[in-house]
Specification:
By secondary structure, the protein is α+β, with helices and mostly antiparallel strands. The chain is 18% helix and 34% strand. It is globular, with a radius of gyration of 27 Å. It is found in: Periplasm. Residues 392-402 have a biased composition (Acidic residues). Residues 1-28 form the signal peptide.
């Protein structure tokens, strides 16, 4: 489960199946929500007296999805500390693996067995390895499936059932035509109760939940959606898939009548690309943004709930090359006004990389027109690394991949190379050359001498340490000359530069 301001991802639990009649002849090649079929199932206006016929027609194409994963269990006694990975590399107690499972929902979109679900249903975390995916039909029939493609940014994934049989399927509708107040039906696998049907209305369209990102844009419904509904379809009264159930707002962890589904107008093109094995490419501007709320609007004397404030411009990004500055307020992208329904991230992500577009900003009360050529949007991991500020007071361990074995072993330090983002976080000049201490082994001489996270190593033995390789080289020089210590010069915010000798281990 993921919690963001009370938003709980509808992750997967459960697995029981319910046996139901399909009402479709074996081998039929007609979609379960074919218009001709739906004309006989649902009256044209309003809701039916019963959802039974609609459910019987659609449910055969909705499946339960189970994954089997191999999870790494860290038996390292230093697990959770910055130097746990170094212990493993030295030949310590190696991690072991155990089996784990997850369950969720999905729906078939073609007779040859392509299945749509959420990425978080089938994507294991960094410690896990996906071993097997099983798709279970309402009648209890099980098939093995393979992952065809996944897109973490939109939280969508496409599977393919490993079978030559013909399957019942449903098709996407156009969520852009959906209206608040219309009836909807959700089918899925909440809490392991397979084949569960709930109904409600559309509470809002294009709901922004405050999570941020390019796809914070959902259909909100009061149809009961719970943990396990992830990846299941949200149908309109014509039997069209207008949303993919994705998350719930829940202070308690259970349904409180506020569920969110990815609109089909966003999902369908991405699903088609994943189905074809294509890479998802999106436009990228390179800014960190803040919505213009009432207080911000009042402070600047501008219209509220319009535009987004630029907090940071990423170095060497399209935004920087176009002349965008921190403090600018982006009010229009490619001619489209920026609002809570159409965020900058959403507008930019839906423009192809390499395309030149106009961006209108407010700068000190004036409208300024900028032209920028969008780059390719980095992966979610790369974006997180770019946007992550360095907190010198944090006790979170660094990424083990950033740790240099020799420096960690000889000095008891984790270090990383300075970037403009880190420099700003530490309050030092962005052109500072040095290595930032990310963690200190409490049993090292460096800890006894008072070095701590956030200190900047400027030199070693009077040689500038602008790179990890430079510090590693000075350690080697000291050892080759038979010296037991190395002289570091470091900077701490608000204090003068200092020299300190650190004993090698």
């Amino acid at each position: 489960m993921r919690y963001v301001y009370g938003l709980t991802s509808a992750l997967l639990v459960g697995g029981a199946a319910v046996s139901l009649m399909t009402g479709i002849p074996a081998g039929a090649q007609v979609a379960q929500n074919d218009a001709g079929v739906m004309d006989r199932v649902v009256p044209e206006a309003g809701a039916p007296a019963s959802f039974a016929d609609l459910t019987q027609q659609l449910q055969p194409a909705v499946v339960n999805i189970a994954t089997r994963q191999s999870v790494e269990v860290n038996r390292n006694p230093f697990a959770g500390t910055p130097f746990a990975e170094l212990f493993n590399r030295r030949g310590g107690n190696q991690p072991q693996r155990r089996e784990a499972q997850s369950l969720g929902s999905g729906f078939i979109i073609s007779a040859d067995g392509f299945v749509v679900t959420n990425n978080h249903v089938v994507a294991p975390d960094n410690r896990a390895r996906l071993e097997e995916i099983t798709v279970t039909f309402p009648d209890g029939t099980e098939y093995e499936a393979e992952l065809v493609g996944a897109d973490p940014d939109s939280d969508l994934a496409v599977l393919k059932i490993k079978s030559d049989k013909s399957f019942p399927f449903v098709t996407f509708g156009n969520s852009a035509e959906s209206r608040v107040g219309e009836w909807v039906v959700a089918i899925g696998n909440p809490f392991g109760l397979g084949g569960t049907v709930t109904s409600g209305i559309i509470s809002a369209v294009y709901r922004n939940t405050g999570q941020g990102g390019a796809y914070d844009r959902f259909i909100q419904t009061d149809a009961s959606i719970n943990r396990g509904n992830s990846g299941g379809p949200l149908f309109d009264m014509r039997g069209n898939v207008i949303g993919i159930n994705n998350a719930i707002f829940s202070p308690s962890g259970g349904s409180v009548g506020i569920g969110f589904a990815i609109p089909s107008e966003i999902a369908a093109p991405i699903v088609e690309q994943l189905k074809q094995g294509q890479e998802i490419e999106r436009g990228y501007l390179g800014v960190q943004l803040q919505p213009v709320n009432d207080d911000l609007a009042n402070s600047l004397g501008i219209e509220r709930n319009r535009g987004e404030l630029v907090q940071l411009v990423t170095d060497d990004s399209p935004a920087e090359k176009a002349g965008m500055r921190p403090g600018d307020i982006i009010v229009s992208v490619n001619g489209n006004p920026v609002s809570s329904d159409q965020t900058v991230s959403f507008l930019v992500a839906n423009i192809n990389p390499g395309q030149s577009i106009p961006v209108t900003v407010l700068r000190e009360g004036r409208r300024v027109e900028l032209n920028t050529t969008l780059a390719k949007r980095p992966t979610a991991e790369e974006l997180a690394q770019q946007q992550q500020n360095f907190d010198p007071d944090s006790e979170e361990p660094m990424n083990p991949d950033q740790m240099d074995d020799q420096i960690a072993e000889k000095l008891g330090l984790q270090v990383l190379e300075m970037t403009p983002q880190i420099a700003r976080s530490l309050g030092v000049d962005t052109d500072t050359v040095g290595l930032v201490i990310g963690a200190v082994d409490p049993n090292s001489d460096a800890a006894r001498k008072g070095l701590r996270r956030g200190d900047v190593i400027l030199s070693a033995n009077y040689q500038v340490t602008g790179t990890i390789e430079a510090l590693r080289e000075q350690i080697s020089v000291a050892e080759s000359e038979g010296r037991d210590a190395i002289l570091l010069r470091y900077q701490r915010r608000g204090q003068p530069l200092r020299f300190v000798p650190i004993r090698l281990r």
